[in-house]
Each structure stands twice: as structure tokens, then as C-alpha cells.
Design a protein that fits this description.
The structure is a homodimer. Chain A has helices at residues 44-62, 78-97, 107-115, 122-133, 141-168; strands at 4-10, 16-24, 27-36, 66-70, 101-105. By secondary structure, chain A is α/β, with parallel strands linked by helices.
Chain lengths: 169, 169
């Protein structure tokens, strides 16, 4: 049985959480996680480039089959929305450069996928991340969120694989 | 007297106009212009990557000293703002990758810089692009806007150079 590698990402200009998991059958394992925090004293282009270089290192090292991104909120504040757009645009281009398929997951869907409730608290989600990966969840909320998105993405990937197999038979 | 090469960009997901000019003293010359229109049937990551690859070709070929970007409007529509953010994020990262300094110019500032009025009509701006570059302006409004931003950027670059020279003397 082939193992799937999924990269989860929780995008942000200050802190972008990331987590890599693998799935073989129903078995999930934690591979790596971290947070990318570009220096805040640089201009926006350099901060985005810092983020992209870190992501490139992660993509080279882990070669994920799928990237699962936490969906960017359309904020009431236009400037914040635009900045989130910058980050996401930079990440999306990098995924495309590495030929990694990207799927978006709304925060509500991630929560529901892990806990059964779209309105679950952060602590509940973190608890389930720990249970499903069989290891204490990361202290960093950004990395923990990224792992939660990766797990959500792994469910989707498995469903898709099942459907593809079904449609082939 | 050293010549400055300025790349002007009018960013958009459907059409990104670009134009390269050079400035030696007060003399502006048109070098090249065009419009990048990523295929609309691809997903957003691939469209952004298409845009970036085209930009990389332009940066390699023209090696600009400065990139002047038309400032992205914070739209009332959050989704549109986010998409403009994607494009801008992808462009900014690429400029940083090539070590090209980026300056933003609001549309009003571009108009004022070229015509003396921030409320000038498109046709007036296009007319001035033609006059200042000594050649008929491009038919494409996106390319023409990009050249207008490049010209605005060249003014700024010249002022800056003068100030730097002044502060050195």
C-alpha cells in the first residue's frame, strides 16, 4: 500500500504554520512541523521571499503528494485581506512550481473533520491532532493548526483515492 | 551618465500589463511592452505560476533597476481584493528573487506625474505616454498603464538619485 505525504499549511504573514504527515491506509504519522516567521523589519517583498524560500526547503525535503491550505478569511478589513492574499499568492505559486496539488479547507471544515463539530474549540482540535498522530500536539498553535489541516487533507485524499479505485473497477 | 532601466507593471489576474523603459538624464526611451494573460481554464495556482514564469523571462531579459507597480486597490468586494492580493504576492516574491527593488504608485499619483492632474482621463495619460516616449502608445490599455507607471517610477528614481548625489557631496 502506497503511503501518501500531506503538507498542511496555516498561512500568515507573521507566522505561517506547517506540518507534514504521512498516511498509509488508516494509519497517520507525524513527519515534521514548524513555523515560518519572516523578519518583520524587512519590506513585504523580502518577507514573502523569505517565506517562499523556507517553503521550498520543506517541499524539497518532504516532497508531499498534496498540500492542504487553511482557507484565507475574507476579512472586513480590506488591507488585512490584501495582505493575506499576498501570502497566499506567494505560497500558491511555490506549490505550482513544485507541481504540488493544493486543496483549500475552511477552518470550520477542518474542525468538523477532526472533532465532528465545526464549532469545536482550539483545545479540542489540538487534542484530536495528538490522538490521531499518536504524539503530543505541538505547543505552537500555528503548527498545530497546520497539522489539523494536513489531517483534514489526508481524509479528503483517501476519499478521493477510494472513489478513483471504485470508478476504475 | 548611467542609464536606468525601469519595469512598470499593472497587475491583474486576467491581464497583467508590463512595460520597460530606460532613462538617461531626462531622456526616456521605450524598450518593450506586453500583456501577460494566463489561461483562464487553469486553477489559480497554475495561473499565478504562468504569470510568474513570464515575469521571470522579462526580468532575465531586461534586468531592470527598479520595478514600479500600480498600487492594488482595496476593493469593496473582499474576494476581488484577495485575488488581487494573490497576484501581487506572486509578483512581489518574483521581484525579490531577482533582487529588483519595488515601488508602489497609486493610480492618482501616476496620472498626476504624467499629466499634472490626478483626475486625468485614460486618453490623456495614453497621450502623454506617447509624447514622453516619443512613440505612439500601445493599443492595449494594460500595457499603456504599465508604461505610465514605469514613467512615474522613473521620475521618482531620478529624484532619489539626485538626493543621493546631493547627500554625498
Amino acid at each position: 500500500m502506497r503511503s501518501l505525504t500531506i503538507l498542511g499549511v496555516d498561512p500568515g504573514l507573521r507566522h505561517t504554520g506547517w506540518g507534514v504527515i504521512s498516511r498509509r491506509g488508516n494509519q497517520l504519522s507525524l513527519r515534521a512541523f514548524g513555523v515560518i516567521s519572516p523578519p518583520t523589519d524587512q519590506d513585504i517583498a523580502d518577507r514573502l521571499f523569505y517565506l517562499v524560500k523556507e517553503l521550498e526547503t520543506i517541499l524539497s525535503q518532504w516532497q508531499p503528494d498534496l498540500a492542504a491550505l487553511e482557507e484565507t478569511f475574507v476579512n472586513v478589513n480590506g488591507k488585512t485581506t490584501l495582505q493575506l492574499g499576498f501570502v497566499r499568492g506567494a505560497l500558491l505559486v511555490t506549490m505550482a512550481r513544485f507541481g504540488v496539488r493544493v486543496r483549500d479547507f475552511a477552518p470550520r471544515m477542518v474542525k468538523k473533520s477532526l472533532t465532528g463539530s465545526g464549532a469545536a474549540q482550539k483545545a479540542q482540535v489540538a487534542g484530536m491532532v495528538g490522538v490521531l498522530l499518536g504524539t503530543p500536539p505541538p505547543q505552537s498553535p500555528d503548527a498545530c493548526d497546520a497539522l489539523a489541516v494536513a489531517i483534514c487533507g489526508s481524509h479528503e485524499a483517501t476519499h478521493q483515492a477510494t472513489h478513483e479505485t471504485a470508478s476504475l473497477s
